[in-house]
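Quiz preparation item.
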């Protein structure tokens, strides 16, 4: 017998409606009570797998059983990224319009590889990518594409740089024994090292550029390293700079780096995965200095622009270079529209593409950019409040300068010379499920990162976390 949910007839659609409304009720209830849940899941490895059926069911399972599984097994096995005391990593925000956008995307279930395979997806992508370029004040001539992640965008950038620098020969003839070099600071995200590896440069050819006391890449050191490599007969290809490093939010000097890449004929890719969104705020407009000399730029609305994962915007100075490096045209993908339309499959690595522009469009349209800017400023004010509290605390100190809503702190080194108590503090807070922060080691020192960027975080959530940290500090000191 064919289950109702497998048929597009009245009974099938009614069964879907019932299921979908129940899911909407479930999600609504989730948002009503998410702040009462432990932020980081408290399950042990293997627990969810052990509670899951060993084989796929041969016949449909009653929905009641599945909702029970959702409540009793899945929910406790989730770390709640939409919890207002989620301060770990960088946030992976959402908003109700974004969720609604994903519902629409799922509902139409289109595959948007070519203009012809979904003209609205291609043209709404072009529209929203243009909106965001304008919102962030990026150079008007840049063109962009929505990718799944910043990692993919950075890999795309290095592959394009590789082809451009080799006169588009490596793709066909291989490296031919030539040594190609990529430059980034040791604060760059791990996706840079991964991209260097995957693009075939070899991680030995990822040159780590020293940083200054604020963990920003030093342009003088960069230029010296490039000159050294040129003198050895190596081919410097690209610099990846970061606007908002993962550990502390450090910002590399984009303008000075652009000057160097232009002088030496290198590609300049900017990873602004997290802080890029702040370019919407006129008070951070200075962060745009030098961007006109950049070749590619990525930022993630899925981190701090209330559009849920996945949605990463990748911009390039020359779309021709990108399409030349990425385009491939077998007969079965050729359409009658040729150059008159934008086939985004030629703007990145995968062929198949989701309709990601819908959630971006719905979020910007239903929230409006004024409210988004105000929420970003609210998060930055919360960051300043956290910084002031750390500064006034007798046992804690700031590890590196605050960057907007990214704070890094530790227990004072005279009280914690090895960083063990700082690590224990983070573990205790996370294990209790009260709040969630990330521990990191930077320049051999332990620190905790506290990012106040979750959509629904209010001052009360931050202040109750101060009190919780105070109690935890007392508790970890007890033998
Ligand atoms: C600076 C930076 N770049 C890149 C990434 C990777 O982002 P994605 O998950 O979109 O690949 C991160 C993730 O936190 C990041 O902090």
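Solution:
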């Amino acid at each position: 017998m064919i289950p109702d949910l497998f048929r597009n007839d009245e009974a099938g659609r009614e069964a879907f409606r019932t299921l979908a409304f129940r899911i909407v009720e479930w999600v609504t209830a989730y948002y009503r009570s998410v702040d009462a849940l432990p932020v980081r899941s408290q399950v042990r490895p293997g627990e969810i797998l052990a509670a899951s059926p060993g084989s796929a069911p041969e016949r449909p399972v009653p929905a009641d059983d599945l909702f029970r599984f959702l409540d009793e097994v899945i929910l406790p096995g989730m770390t709640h990224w939409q919890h207002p005391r989620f301060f770990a990593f960088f946030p992976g925000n959402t908003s109700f319009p974004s969720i609604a956008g994903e519902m629409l995307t799922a509902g139409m279930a289109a595959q948007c590889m070519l203009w012809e395979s979904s003209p609205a997806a291609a043209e709404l992508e072009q529209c929203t990518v243009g909106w965001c370029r304008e919102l962030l004040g990026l150079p008007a001539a840049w063109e962009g594409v929505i990718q799944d992640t910043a990692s993919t965008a950075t890999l795309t950038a290095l592959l394009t740089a590789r082809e451009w620098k080799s006169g588009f020969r490596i793709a066909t003839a291989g490296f031919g024994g030539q040594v190609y070099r990529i430059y980034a600071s040791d604060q760059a995200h791990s996706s840079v090292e991964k991209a260097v590896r995957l693009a075939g440069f070899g991680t030995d050819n990822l040159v780590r550029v020293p940083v200054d006391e604020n963990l920003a890449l030093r342009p003088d050191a960069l230029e010296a390293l490039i000159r050294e490599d040129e003198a050895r007969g190596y081919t410097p290809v690209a610099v990846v700079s970061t606007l908002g490093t993962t550990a502390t939010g450090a910002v590399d000097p984009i303008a000075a780096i652009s000057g160097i890449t232009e002088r030496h004929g290198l590609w300049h890719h900017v990873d602004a995965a997290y802080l890029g969104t702040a370019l919407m705020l006129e008070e951070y407009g200075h962060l745009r200095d030098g961007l006109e000399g950049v070749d590619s730029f990525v930022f993630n609305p899925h981190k701090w622009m209330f559009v849920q994962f996945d949605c990463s915007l990748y911009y390039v100075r020359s779309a021709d270079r990108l399409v030349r490096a990425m385009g491939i045209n077998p007969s079965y993908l050729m359409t009658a529209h040729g150059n008159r339309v934008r086939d985004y499959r030629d703007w990145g690595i995968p062929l198949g593409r989701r309709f990601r522009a819908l959630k971006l469009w719905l979020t910007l349209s239903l929230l409006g950019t004024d409210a988004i800017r105000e929420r970003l400023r609210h998060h930055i004010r919360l960051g300043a409040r956290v910084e002031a509290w750390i500064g006034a605390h007798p046992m804690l100190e700031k590890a590196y300068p605050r960057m907007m809503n990214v704070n890094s702190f530790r227990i004072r080194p005279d009280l914690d010379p090895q960083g063990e108590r700082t690590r224990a503090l983070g573990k205790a807070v996370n294990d209790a499920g009260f709040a969630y922060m990330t521990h990191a080691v930077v320049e051999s020192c332990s620190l905790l990162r506290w990012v106040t960027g979750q959509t629904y975080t209010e001052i009360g959530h931050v202040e109750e976390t101060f009190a919780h940290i105070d109690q935890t500090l007392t508790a970890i000191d007890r033998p």
